[in-house]
Design a protein that fits this description.
Chain A is α/β, with parallel strands linked by helices. Chain A has eight helices and 36 strands. In chain A, the strands form eight sheets. An eight-stranded mixed beta sheet of chain A has the order 18-21-24-27-30-33-35-36. In chain A, strands 5-4-1-8-13-10-14 form a seven-stranded mixed beta sheet, sandwiched between helices. In chain A, a hairpin with a 3-residue loop joins strand 35 (418-420) and strand 36. The longest helix of chain A has 12 residues, at 199-210. Chain A is globular and about 65 Å long. Chain B is α/β, with parallel strands linked by helices. Helices cover 22% and strands 27% of the residues of chain B. Chain B has helices spanning 38-47, 62-68, 101-107, 109-113, 134-142, 159-162, 200-213, 218-224, 247-256, 260-267, and strands spanning 4-9, 30-31, 35-36, 52-56, 82-86, 119-124, 127-128, 147-153, 166-170, 176-181, 190-199, 232-236, 242-243, 284-286, 291-293, 295-297, 302-303, 306-308, 311-312, 317-318, 323-325, 328-329, 334-335, 340-342, 344-346, 351-352, 357-359, 366-368. Chain B has a seven-stranded mixed beta sheet, with helices on both faces. In chain B, strands 14-17-20-23-26 form a five-stranded parallel beta sheet, with no helix packed on it. In chain B, strands 15-18-21-24-27 form a five-stranded parallel beta sheet, with no helix packed on it. In chain B, helix 3 crosses helix 7. Chain B starts with a strand and ends in a 6-residue tail after the last strand. In chain B, 49% of the residues are buried. Classes of the chains: A alpha/beta, B alpha/beta. The A-B interface holds A 34-36, 74-75, 259, 262, 268-269, 274-277, 279, 281-289, 291-300, 303, 312-314 and B 32-34, 72, 257-258, 260, 263, 266-268, 273-275, 278, 280, 282-288, 290-300, 302, 311-313. Strand 16 of chain A pairs antiparallel with strand 16 of chain B.
């Protein structure tokens, strides 16, 4: 067996609870993005494009869709005899069965997997971010600095720095302090959740951390501070490209909208750095004589008879005549019936929007049930929902997964309200 | 249809397809924005449950080989069965080249000998249709036929067009009583689709007999010569079917894909999808100036101009102030700013430079060959 210098561990177990109805049934890495991808595709494609062909994907929360999406790693060329992709889910050990109790614990529980391959380095990734990055450059940096841990950082505006884990470094890049969401940030170097460790060193810390009952078993909260306390050689690797943590409804919507710009900051057309995903097996999309598409991204299998502007349309979407779709994201196999008007909304998979429906009208009032989550004027419709003809739906409205016409107490749903299965039109 | 193997014939040289087959066999001709002609027969076989398919190939096979690869996209990368590709090879007793369809199959008789399935479906690789073969096989068994030929009534075609097909006549029982290959004066509108069902053992003995007599062509030397002695039946197919045998039919077939009914039948049946090689392209990008009407657009396109009644394959770039009408633009072709195209077929990797204008007729589209800079 050819020995692997580096393997990747992709933490894909997070729910991403701030994405609300989008992650009710699926883990955040499985959320659709950019017209045909799922968020995890970016990390997986980065791995294979960086020459890392051995990846353990750690799943936990709602893994069904994620597992069927990644399968045995075929789209990323990771269906290999030597190495390849392995899904690592929590399992029973002797008497005890344990869930992953934190990012560090998740890796700890898979020490056997890593030991068997026995790489020199491991790269820890999260499946939550949208970015293109060559990890092999980061590994070069790690080796060059003789580091035991290298943490990839990105410069963020100082006013936003308190939302991130901030690395305080010396001028040469060596980290002397890590602050999680500091109130008064001393630097603007935010951790991207991409770590390279020298495996022998990390293994000892994972074992030690596991025995500490007070630990949260988290890389950011425990492992990295502990290593810093011990004066380990830890370095910040600056990344300058496009990177988004699409952790909120607004951030998710904005990152999708970025792709509709004339020259998007995230170039997905680069033949040297393709993003791979399973193919939907659909014909090219069709724009009808009545259709009109501008500043948008449209995937295969769509049939467009209406007007689409500044929107991202996933495979197999059917948009009927006389519709106007603006600033919206419409996920796979949804149908928008004739005469409807959609503004600034996110429509889940397999949704049917009835005839002459209007979504995203009225005032911008935050959602009454979850004002912290739905407050940027975006209305979200969960997968499999069915919106009755002539409905009028405001801004920041949430339509729950699988809601049918019978769940609408009224055809008018003002801004900030929610429609939940079982018919509570708040 | 576990009990059947498939053979796809892609051999023939199609002069009628001009520039498009200089570098590729007609089975590898790009169709419908992302497909190659062979995808249709191959997917039809796979969807019918056939898991062992031999592709016999001869002329310009590189692009076909490249397209088929290991058969991954059709789920034919198997340990048992799967995809077999049979290019001609020089052996002790032959010239290497296949002298005809029967000769080609005879040269690969081992494929038939080593199989244990009872039936073989032989089909040509350059027709556009989506069919499950189960019913035809059932018919073949019920009729106790030696050979079943699948045919289609082509009522709308002129005598001239009909004379490009194999024309057959059937009696009331469905038995074929006459078969004329490319007749000058077609006696009926029943066109052979070039799909034959035959038992594996009979096929082997017929092929051996042909070889012994120096016969090389399956239609001329088997079907026509044995029409009296073998029980040859016709099975009528009523779905969409087009043979890519001329520029005219190629252009027409692509344009027909703009009709919703045709697309629905070919591509949107849940249990019989058409598979093709995956290119991992980005969804198409439309910019402010885009005005696309009645067109098919594949992934990877970037559009800033006017496109009407056209088909854009994967990775086409359409610049500003461009007007494309009634045209077929293949993979990775770049149409620069201020270009006007009317009834044009641009092959792969063509570049039409700024301000150029090309105009053909629907019955005589202008063709620009692969990698040409206009």
């Amino acid at each position: 067996m050819i020995r692997k210098e580096i393997i990747a561990l992709l933490l894909a177990g997070g729910q991403g609870s701030r994405l609300g109805v989008l992650t009710k049934r699926i883990a955040k890495p499985a959320v659709l993005f950019g017209g045909k991808y799922r968020i995890i595709d970016f990390s997986l494609s980065n791995c294979i494009n960086s020459g890392i062909d051995t990846v353990g994907v750690l799943t936990q929360y709602q893994p069904l869709k994620l597992n069927s999406h990644i399968g045995i790693g075929k789209p990323w060329d990771m269906d290999r005899m030597n190495g390849g992709l392995t899904v690592l889910s929590p399992y029973l050990k002797g008497e005890i069965g344990e869930w992953y109790m934190g990012t560090a614990n998740a890796v700890y529980q898979n020490i056997d997997y890593i030991n068997k391959i026995s790489p020199k380095y491991v790269i820890i990734l999260s499946g939550d971010h949208v970015y293109k990055m060559n990890y092999s450059h980061m590994l070069d940096y790690h080796k060059e600095k003789g580091a035991e841990a290298t943490i990839s950082v990105i410069d963020v505006p100082i006013e936003e720095a308190s939302r991130y884990g901030i690395m305080n470094t010396y001028e040469n890049g060596r980290i002397y302090e890590f602050e999680e969401k500091p109130e008064h940030p001393k630097s603007t170097l935010a951790s991207m959740g991409v770590y390279i460790f020298t495996w022998d060193v990390l293994r000892d810390y994972l074992i030690e951390d596991n025995e500490n009952p007070d630990s949260d078993h988290d890389f950011g909260k425990n492992i990295i501070p502990e290593m810093l306390r011990d004066g380990r050689s830890m370095w910040a690797y600056r990344f300058a490209g496009y990177w988004r943590d699409v952790g909120t409804i607004q951030a998710y919507w904005e990152a999708n909208m970025d792709l509709t710009k004339r020259v998007p900051n995230l170039n997905l057309f680069d033949p040297a750095w393709k993003i791979y995903t399973p193919n939907p097996v659909k014909p090219p999309h069709y724009i009808a004589p009545s259709g009109n598409v501008k500043m948008s991204v449209v995937a295969e299998g769509c049939m467009i008879y209406g007007n689409v502007k500044n929107s991202v349309i996933f495979p197999g979407v059917y948009i009927e005549e006389g519709t106007v779709i603006e600033d919206s994201i419409i996920m796979s196999n949804s149908k928008i019936r004739a005469g409807s008007y959609l503004n600034k909304c996110i429509i889940g998979e397999h949704v049917v929007v009835g005839k002459n429906v209007r979504i995203g009208t009225g005032e911008n009032i935050p959602n009454e049930l979850k004002p912290g989550m739905y407050n940027s004027g975006i209305t979200v419709v969960g997968e499999d929902a069915n919106i009755p003809d002539d409905a009028e739906i405001g801004k920041n409205v949430v339509i729950d997964i699988g809601v049918g016409p019978e769940d609408f107490l009224s055809k008018t749903v003002p801004s900030g309200k929610s429609v939940i299965k079982g018919g509570k039109c708040q | 249809m576990k009990n059947t193997i498939g053979i796809i014939l892609t051999g023939g040289k199609k002069r009628e397809l001009k520039e498009m087959t200089i570098k590729r066999t007609s089975a590898a001709i790009p169709v419908g924005g992302k497909y190659r002609a062979i995808d249709f027969v191959l997917s039809s076989m796979v969807n019918s449950g056939i898991t062992k398919v031999g592709v016999i190939t001869q002329y310009n096979l590189r692009s076909l080989m490249d397209h088929l690869g290991s058969g991954k996209e059709w789920d034919l990368d198997r340990r048992h069965g799967g995809l077999y590709i049979f290019p001609p090879s020089l052996s002790g007793d032959g010239t290497g080249w296949y002298r005809g369809t029967a000769d080609a199959m005879y040269n690969n008789l081992t494929f038939l000998k080593r199989s244990d399935e009872d039936y073989v479906i032989i089909a040509s690789g350059d027709c556009i249709y989506n069919m499950l073969f189960d019913n035809a096989l059932q018919y073949h068994i019920e009729k106790d036929a030696d050979i079943t030929i699948i045919y289609k009534e082509m009522d709308g075609l002129s005598q001239k067009e009909l004379s490009k097909f194999g024309i057959l006549e059937v009696d009331n029982n469905g038995r074929i009583i006459d078969f004329q290959e490319k007749p000058l004066h077609p006696a009926s509108t029943k066109c052979s689709m070039g799909i034959y069902i035959i038992s594996r053992k009979l096929l082997m003995s017929i092929l051996e007999d042909c070889a012994a007599h120096g016969y090389y062509d399956f239609v001329m030397d088997v079907i026509i010569k044995r029409i009296q002695t073998l029980r040859i039946f016709g099975y009528k197919f009523s779905g969409y079917w087009r043979s890519i045998n001329s520029i005219e039919s190629y252009y027409k077939c692509n344009m027909e894909l703009l009709q919703p009914e045709v697309r629905d039948e070919l591509f949107l049946q849940a249990d019989r999808k058409i598979f093709t090689k995956v290119k991992s392209e980005v969804p198409a990008k439309y910019n402010e100036e885009a005005e696309v009407k009645n067109s098919l657009v594949a992934d990877g396109c970037i559009i800033e101009g006017i496109v009407e009644n056209s088909i854009l394959f994967r990775g086409v770039t359409v610049g500003k102030n461009v007007i494309i009408k009634d045209s077929i633009i293949m993979h990775d072709t770049v149409v620069e700013d201020n270009v006007e195209l009317n009834c044009v077929i641009l092959d792969k990797n063509v570049r039409v430079t700024k301000g150029k204008s090309l105009k053909g007729e629907k019955s005589w589209p202008v063709i620009v060959g692969k990698r040409v800079v206009v």
